[in-house]
Amino acid sequence: MDKNTALSKSNMTSSVFLRRSANILGENVMIIFIIILAIALSFLNKNFMTVQNMLNILRQLSYVGIIAIGMTFVILSAQIDLSVGSVAALAGMMFGVLFRDFGAPWPLALAGAIFAGIVVGLINGTFVAYLRIPAFVVTLGMMTILRGAVLLMSQGRSIGPYPDKFVWIGTGFVFGLPFPTILLIIMLIVGFIALKYSIFGRYVYAIGGNPEAARLSGVNVKKFSLIVFLIVSFAAALAGIVMTARLNSSVPSLGDGMEMDAIAAVCVGGTSLYGGRGSILKTIVGALIMTLIRNGLNILRVSTWWQLVVVGLILIVAVYSSTRREK
User: Fold this and answer.
1) Interval 131-190: pLDDT, tens
2) How far is C-alpha 277 from the geometric centre of its chain's CA atoms?
3) What is the end-to-end Cα distance of the chain in Å, rounded?
4) Which one of 62, 129, 150, 174 has the lowest number of neighbouring Cβ atoms within 10 Å?
5) CB contact at 8 A, 69 and 75
C-alpha cells in the first residue's frame, strides 16, 4: 500500500468518524441541553436540586406535557390549536359549577368537565375538517369565546374548595411520584403506541405529509382531522382538571398562556409545523426543556413579564429551526 492510498483511507476513516459523531450529537442535542441547563441552574440557585423543587418540576411537566402530547397529534396533521389553554380553564370552571351550583358528586362533575372539553374539540374539528375554515382562525376564535364563557360562568371569581378525594388528583402520590406524573406517563404510552404502531398513527402522519395523497389512498382525511382535535381537547381538559385539583379551586385565569408552552414544547421537540414529521417522545423532551426554563426563571425570581418574552423567543427560534430543516 503506497503512502497516498494510506492517507486517503485515513481521511475517509476520519470523515466517517466525524459524520457519525455529528449525527450522534444531533440526535442527542436536546438531552445535552437539558443536562447543561440543569447544571447551570444548580449553580445559580442552590434550591434548584432540592427534592421539593424536583417534585414541582414533575408536576409542572405533567401539565405542559399532557397538553403537548395532544398538540403533537394536531401539529403532525399540519394543523394547530390555540384554544387549549381556554379549554383547560373551561374544564376547571365547569367542574366547579357542576359541583357547587348543581350539587353533582365530584366524579360526575369531573366527567362533565371532560365532556365539555371534548365538545369543544368536536366543534373545532368540525369547522376545520368539514367546513374547511383554517384551524388558526377557528381555534383563535374559540380561545376568545371560551375565556368569555369562563368569566360569565364564574363572574370573575374563583370557586372552591373541593373534597379531599378530588384534590388528591392534583396533590397525591403513587409509587413516590406525583399522580399527575402518572397520568402523563399513561398519556405518553398511549400516544406513543397510537402514533408508532396503529393505523390511526400512520394516517395522521400521511395527512400531515400530503393530505391530497392520503385522500387518494383511501384515507378519510376529514374524519381523522376531526379526531386529532378531539384528542387535543381531551388532553387540555384533563390538564385543566389536574391543575384545578392542585389549586383546590377553579380559577378563571387557569391555563392562560398554556397554548404557547404546549406549541413551543412540540416545536422544540422537533415536530414539523408543516406536519408529517415528529414524535411523542421528543415532544416530552421539549416539554421538559420548557418546564426547566420556566422553573429556573421562577426560582431566580425573574419577572413573569420577562418569562413571556423568553417563551416567545424560544418559540420563534424553534419555528425557525423547523423551517430551516424543511428547506
Assistant:
1) 999 999 999 999 999 999 999 998 888 887 899 999 999 999 998 899 999 999 999 999
2) 16
3) 43
4) 174
5) no
Q: Are 68 and 286 in contact (CB under 8 A)?
A: yes
Mutual angle of helices 179-197 and 199-209, in 10-degree steps: 70
**Cα four-point dihedral sign 104, 107, 110, 115:** negative
Q: Is 245 exposed, middle or buried (0-12, 13-18, 19+ CB in 10 A)?
A: buried
Q: How far apart are CA 287 and CA 30, in angstroms?
A: 11
Q: How much is the pLDDT for 24?
A: 47
Q: Mean pLDDT score of the chain, rounded to an integer?
A: 86
Q: Give the separation between CA 255 and CA 84, rounded to whole angstroms.
A: 8
Q: Which residues are registered as beta bridge partners of 177?
A: 174
* Closest C-alpha to 206, from 296, 276, 282, 135: 276
What is the per-residue DSSP string for 279-303? -HHHHHHHHHHHHHHHHHHHHTT--
Burial state string for 182-220 with b = 16 or more CB within 10 A and e = fewer than 16 = ebbeebbeebbebbeeeeebebbbbbbbebeebeeeebe
Of 4 and 229, the structure prediction assigns the larger pLDDT to: 229
Average pLDDT over residues 221-234: 94
User: Which helix (H) or strand (E) segment is 174 a member of?
Assistant: strand 173-174
Tell which CATH classification among 3.40.630, 2.160.20, 1.10.8, 1.10.3470 matches the domain 49-326. Answer: 1.10.3470
With a cut of 70, say whether residue 270 has pLDDT above it: yes
Q: What is the pTM of this model?
A: 0.86
